[in-house]
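Q: Got a minute? One more chain.
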Amino acid sequence: APEPRPGVRGGHMPSARNLPFPDVLEEGRLRPPEELRSLFLERATPEQQVITSCGSGITACVLTLAAWELGYRNLSVYDGSWAEWGAPSHLPVVS
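A: Always. Here it is, folded:
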C-alpha cells in the first residue's frame, strides 16, 4: 500500500518484520499468552533483539508490552518510527 502521509517514503526498514498492533489485542486486551507466543515466534525468538516501531512511536509500545509479557527482554521502542525513518533522508528503505 502506498504511504498515506505526504513527505514520507513508502516501504519499510531493512530486516523489518510486520506485526500490526491490533493483532496482539482481543477486545482491547492482550491476547492469551499462547496466541501471542505464536505471533512473536514467527518473527523473533526471545533471545533476539527486538526493536518495535510504527508510524509515530506510540502503538509500537503495545507490541513491546506484549513481547515483555512473553519473556522477551532485549527490547527497544524506536520512538522516531516511520515518521522519522521514512522522511526523505539517507536511511535505507526496502519497498
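A: DSSP finds three helices and four strands in the chain.
Q: Perfect, thanks.
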